[in-house]
Amino acid sequence: MIIVLKPSATEEQITKFTNKLKESYDVKVNKWDGVQSTVLGLIGDTTKIDIEYIDAQDIVENVKRVQEPYKKANRKFHPDNTVIKINDNVTIGDGSLHIMAGPCSVESEEQIVQIAKDVKASGATLLRGGAFKPRTSPYAFQGLKAEGLDLLKTARRETGLPIVTEIMRASHIDMFENVDIIQVGARNMQNFELLKELGKIDKPILLKRGLSATIEEWLMSAEYIMAGGNDKVMLCERGIRTYETFTRNTLDISAIPIIKKLSHLPVIVDPSHASGKSWLVEPLAMAAVAAGADGLIIEVHNDPPHALSDGAQSLTPKQFDGVAKKVFGLKKAVDKL
């Protein structure tokens, strides 16, 4: 249940009303202060609450029951967009557009540092790169693991770009202490034990949508993290598995405005994994920006034909420069509408 209070409600009135709700109905009350109003979210068994009695209180603007099982990720409880500050130069969810760019896999110091310099020069504000790589085949390159993390940190020192990389298991969390954004891959979206542990840390999480996950399942995975106390969650649409085989996945562009309506969390789009083809990255990236995405995560490699993973969907630095110019230009045009 959510209760929207009148703008005129004082802190004393709100505290008194909140305490009465807790005592009378044995529910947990979360309070969110929005720009226009204060919202109370009641979690627990609200079936015995007299909604007409609540609505009749002087400080209550309106009250409604919430049917969705996700509460903390729900825009009804949190009317304002979540804004996540990564560093002094990167704030996600404030209306700006950010691009996370870099190779699927970190392969060497020379490779990751040069790519980091190239994508930064083209406007990327974060460096993505895989140290631990989940692969369909057990014989495929699995990443440099801890060494890969160290190389990402080296690239960060050289360029100042915050780093984004994927975690595979809860036991690795300590290794990711100095990572700026921890990515949860599509295959781990419903690894609930991992999500619970990520809920205990104070670090931004990029949660990718599972291959066949519904939007509600995706939001419920975000809820696992947020229920643990970590509200710094970003959702990443990376395409879902359909009957179409021409592309690697099918990018669900409609998920962007749907998530924006249902949730307050930032939405990042991955056109590289969605398409699996480098020539499709540009049109899909532009479609995502036009639909309201807060950011993009794009694979860039200095030598795609010889990449150890995902070469077919990787852009060269020159190609990325062209895409970045177009999407930033499109963003300016969209903002003027």
Give your account of this protein's structure:
With 337 residues, this protein is of the alpha/beta class. The protein folds into two domains: 2-64, Alpha-Beta Plaits; 84-336, Aldolase class I (TIM Barrel), CATH 3.20.20. The protein has ten helices and 14 strands. It has helices spanning 11-25, 51-55, 109-121, 146-159, 192-198, 215-227, 255-262, 271-275, 278-290, 317-336; strands at residues 2-5, 28-33, 38-43, 60-64, 84-85, 91-92, 98-102, 126-128, 163-167, 181-184, 205-208, 233-237, 267-269, 295-299. The strands form three sheets. It has an eight-stranded parallel beta barrel with strand order 7-8-9-10-11-12-13-14, surrounded by five helices. It has a four-stranded antiparallel sheet with strand order 2-3-1-4. Strand 8 (126-128), helix 4 and strand 9 form a beta-alpha-beta unit. It is elongated and about 70 Å long. The relative contact order is 0.12.
